[in-house]
Amino acid sequence: MSIIYRFLITALILLTTTAFATAEDWRVVKATDQAKYTVDRTNWLDLRTGDVLPNRAWVSTGPRGRVQLARGVESITFQPNTLASITGYGGFLSPQTQIVQQVGALDLEIEKRSQPHTTVQTPYLAAVVKGTIFHVTVGKTKASVSVDRGLVQVASFASGQLSNVGPRQSATVDSKAGMTVKGQLSKPDITSVAPSVARVPAIGTTKLAGAVDASEAAKNKSSAVGKDTASKAGDADKSANGKGNGNGSGSGNGNSGGNGNGNSGGGHGNGNSGGRHGNGNSGGGNGNDHGNSGGNGNSGKGDNNSGGNGNGNSGGHGKGKDK
User: Fold this and answer.
1) Which of 1, 51, 127, 271 has the smallest C-beta neighbourhood within 10 Å, fewest atoms?
2) pLDDT tens profile 23-59
3) Distances (CA, A) of 22 to 17, 70, 87, 91, 95
């Protein structure tokens, strides 16, 4: 009796384990000809109805390709021109699913559970799901999430923004503009979070969006502030010393600022000056006008500018003004 009992228990365990494993597999419900998968990103095989998708496999659809996968009550549909992978982990007691979507469009119906258990990673945003029907679209420079039912938490990597997107709402993350949200009845709120790094690059590049972009943005902002401060300092110096402009033609302009003179020559030239410590003289015909200066700004074809204690010299039919 003991032997029979042990045999029954062993058989029950095997059957239960097999049932659990089958429940956790993603199976192909529908597939067109332009639907393939790979486990090594090198060798691609056709997907056919009834196939079991291996864990960590990447699925690719062509311009006319579509694939629908099912696992219990859950389903994922790959629209044309989509590339994504599906990874299951965490075991039976706490199953987790991570979908990495590099490009294209996915339609997802995920079972509702008490804790978030499915994540969609894109080059620009991550979507964390408890249970819902939603859609994720990834392009070359942005990604978006729209929700039909349930709630999806959307996080932008580079801009450090977070939003809980509900039914008839959407969130879009642009690589440059950051996150924007929409809603038919109301917009979801956006909160600030720490920037993070994407797990997959945008199609056609190897650069990961996220903290690197954020640091570059901060660096650019700092640089812009420095330039603005220097510009204001320069303006203050000019204001204290006066301003002078020498504009002349010969197909160009020469400008000088501060204790400077505007000089014109080369026929029919007029020079007017004003401001502080500046002299401006004009002559009809070929002539040059010099005053208090410490530098030269010369013009030919194009525009040349000199700042601080300088002269603007021009040739041709031109005008020189010093203000």
Assistant:
1) 1
2) 479 999 999 999 999 999 899 999 999 999 999 999 9
3) 9, 11, 15, 13, 13
171-187: average pLDDT: 96
E strand or H helix at 214, and its extent?
A: helix 211-241
Map out the domains of the chain as residue ranges: 27-213, 252-322
Tokens standing for residue 283? 């002559």
**Amino acid identity, residue 248?**
G
> Whole-angstrom Cα distance, residue 260 to residue 272?
12
CA–CA gap between residue 144 and residue 233 (Å, rounded): 44
**pLDDT above 80 for 177:** yes
Q: What is the pTM of this model?
A: 0.61
**pLDDT per position as a tens digit, 287-320:** 444 444 344 444 444 444 444 444 444 444 444 4
Q: What Cα–Cα distance (Å) separates residue 257 from each residue in 118, 231, 321?
A: 64, 14, 11
> Among residues 315, 267, 256, 250, which one has the least CA distance to residue 291?
256
Cβ atoms within 10 Å of 12's Cβ, excluding its own: 10
What letter does residue 73 receive in the DSSP assignment?
Answer: T
Q: Which residue has the tokens 């030239």?
A: 269
List CB contacts of 127: < 8 A, sequence separation 6 or more: 119, 120, 134, 136, 145, 152, 153, 154, 155
